[in-house]
Specification:
By secondary structure, the protein is an alpha/beta fold. The protein folds into 2 domains: 118 residues, Response regulator (Rossmann fold), CATH 3.40.50; 98 residues, Orthogonal Bundle (Arc Repressor Mutant, subunit A). 39% of the residues lie in helices and 21% in strands. It is built from 8 helices and 11 strands. The protein has a 5-stranded parallel sheet with strand order 2-1-3-4-5, with helices on both faces. Strands 6-7-8-9 form a 4-stranded antiparallel sheet, with helices on one face. Helix 6 packs across helix 7 and helix 6 packs across helix 8. It is globular, with a radius of gyration of 18 Å.
């Protein structure tokens, strides 16, 4: 039998935690749960989960801190934040710390399942295995490695799954300008409930990663239109 997808739910409200556990078990997932932040952090850092579902407001250690600690230990761990906070500041903070998505309370189980499945799909290996090269960057979908090759040396770029998929799409469509809605459709999927500002957060995370090998300038902002990757970009580009 194929291995079940493993989820960790960190939620302090008993009714919500029990309801989410029952929901995902019903849909065939293997579920573990934690009732507070300290227990959740310990379990999350233990690894072995296909996805973490974290409430933001938790006793002991909040969901933001768990996300930050887990992302530092494992850049590719899929994380979805569950929050009653819907302000732009809180949403952007969670995404900037490394969350792949957020779901605001109250939520429908249909929307929650759709978002969880979308994040898990992005975790799956790329279907296209051809190596892509642009400027000094080399992206290999088969090994999920991105390297900068310059002056006979190689430097590796560490990317999360969403940033890897975003870079792969841009590198396979060089010089073309893609709007935020187009990137949502092509990178996240056209049935995913994610707002356009999510694209800006992930582009920033991609640039931050590329900046470690002096390649952030390759991803250009085209004012009023969207983003593109260009071999002709200058190091002073925003």
């Amino acid at each position: 039998m194929p291995r079940k997808t493993r989820l960790l739910i960190v939620e302090d409200e008993v009714a919500i935690r029990t309801g989410l556990t029952d929901l995902f078990v019903f849909h065939g997932y293997e579920v573990e749960a934690a009732a507070d932040g300290r227990e959740g952090l310990r379990k999350a850092l233990g690894g072995g989960y296909d996805l973490l579902l974290l409430d933001v407001m938790l006793p002991g250690v909040d969901g933001f801190e768990i996300c930050n600690r887990v992302r530092a230990a494992d850049p590719e761990q899929p994380i979805v934040m569950l929050t009653a906070k819907t302000s732009d500041e809180d949403i952007v903070r969670g995404l900037t710390l490394g969350a792949d998505d957020y779901v605001a309370k109250p939520f429908s189980t249909h929307e929650l399942m759709a978002r969880i499945r979308a994040v898990l799909r992005r975790r799956a290996p790329e279907s296209l295995d051809a190596v892509v090269v642009l400027a000094d960057l080399r992206l290999d979908p088969a090994t999920r490695r991105v390297t900068r090759c310059s002056a006979g040396t190689q430097q590796e770029v560490r990317l999360g799954p969403t940033e890897f998929k975003l870079l792969h799409f841009l590198m396979t469509h060089p010089e073309r300008v893609h709007s935020r809605s187009q990137l949502l459709d092509r990178v996240w999927g056209d049935h995913v409930f994610i707002e356009e500002r999510t694209v800006d957060v992930h582009v920033k995370r991609l640039r931050d990663a590329l900046s470690t090998v002096q390649c952030a300038h390759l991803v250009e902002t085209v004012r009023g239109a969207g983003y593109r990757i260009s071999e002709q970009a200058h190091a002073t580009s925003a």
